Amino acid sequence: MSALERAIANPEPVRGLDAESPVAGLDRRSVGAVEVFAQSVSAVAPTGAALTTPAIIASVTGTASLLPTLLAAGVTLLVASAITQFSRRMAAPGGVSAYIARGLGSTSALVGGVAQLIGYGFVAMFALVGTVYTTLSLVDFTWPSFAAPPVLAVALMLVFGAGALFILVRGIRRSARVTLIVEVVSVGLLAVLTVALLGVLWATDAPMMANRTFAVFDPTAISGPELLVTTAIAMTAFVGFESASTLGGEAKRPLLAIPRAIVWTVFVSTGLYLLTGYAQLTGIDAADLRGGGGYFPIDGVTASLGVPWLGAVLEVAIAASLFACLIASATAMTRVLFALAREGLLPRALGRTRRRSGTPIVSVALGMSIVVAVPVVSVLLGAALWPTMQWLLLGAATGYLVAYFLVSVASPVFLWRIGESGWRSTLVAVSGAVGVAAILVAYLVVEATGARSGAVWLMVGILGVTIVLAAVRTVFAFRHPRIRGVYDVPTIADVWGGRRGEP
Length: 503
Known about the structure:
Layout: H1 3-9, E1 14-17, H2 33-44, H3 46-61, H4 67-87, H5 96-104, H6 106-142, H7 150-169, H8 172-204, H9 206-216, H10 224-235, H11 254-283, H12 286-291, H13 297-304, H14 308-343, H15 361-380, H16 385-417, H17 423-448, H18 453-475, E2 498-500
Parallel strand pairs: 1-2
Helix pairs in contact: 2-8, 2-11, 2-14, 3-10, 3-11, 3-14, 4-10, 4-11, 4-16, 4-17, 5-6, 5-16, 6-7, 6-14, 6-15, 6-16, 6-18, 7-14, 7-15, 8-9, 8-11, 8-14, 9-11, 10-17, 13-14, 14-15, 16-17, 16-18
């Protein structure tokens, strides 16, 4: 008998393992690296952001510039680096909230968890309303005389919500594959059409394009205060990049796949935003971007170029990307609910899973009910779709940025606690925290003076109440379960020769 055969027949005992993981019930080790990457990309919804953010920035500054996108990408990359310090060491379905717990403790984790749920939940609502909005835009393109009644928007929300719920219930492997296919098609379509559009523009008037190329990267074209405000706007196009971290209990090789997915989502999104932003901002004047008719700014772009049908094609890509964003954001939100239930912070029922698919079925049902109910009630009360989307995006961005600030602060503390701190990782994390704080303050100050001031005060109120409750929990900690940042661990079944007991 060979040494290998003897080792297989009588494996060396590995003691100290549990029979069950703290996240047992999830479909563990079932999602590949590509699907994990698709989760983060879908949560960002890069197609919709790429076609709207440059025009919004141009409307604020009065000039075309890609500098805010570059600066926002830099800050996002700093935060991503801080997050990967955790995701390389622990596979936690709670994502950022679990990371904050490991670095700053239970009180900060509660604030971060609420902020994270606000981010994922509000983006899921935004994506649902956006899918309906884009669908109605396509109806308007093919049937301009048709005036869509509010009841049609409500019906479409119920249909798309039911479709997303069906996909989520079927399991993470099914939902991950759907989001992967949809994002590959939508991002690929956008990239191909953008490159084709740039080719036409350069062939038509190369000198004009050369002059505008310099203009969109001119650092003197935008003032300091405007740069800060527009960077905050551009940052909203990146939120959700870390959502792959919520698949810690379900990803294959999570300590490798999740950090790569987080970082590469930032790079891919940045490349797409710069490509499409360059095409929009150099292709026509910023005034045309702001004044274009239609549901989306891209409608004005394509109409001015004499190809209005191209706008309809791009809006199909936007609708597909937003529906994938709905699925991905709802997936992340339900995993956070599942993790907090396993911590004992939420009712135990939210931590139950469906035996066949490993889906946290109660969390999915509750989460999707809220995601559909809020926009439906809003529309029934008379709110228009586009203002509703703006309110939801503001709330989501606020939640995300608060969570990003806390996890950036938690990162160097966590590394110091485990004896792996260094000046580079500390500098990166502190820089990310400072950048996010500046962006968050600028964003809220500007929005507090505008039409969406009510949304600002609503978010400030929710987070303020959360901070007070967290402080009360700290004072009476002996009466309440602490958030410890539950994460997946190897079990007896995962290790050859695994044994229960002390090492």
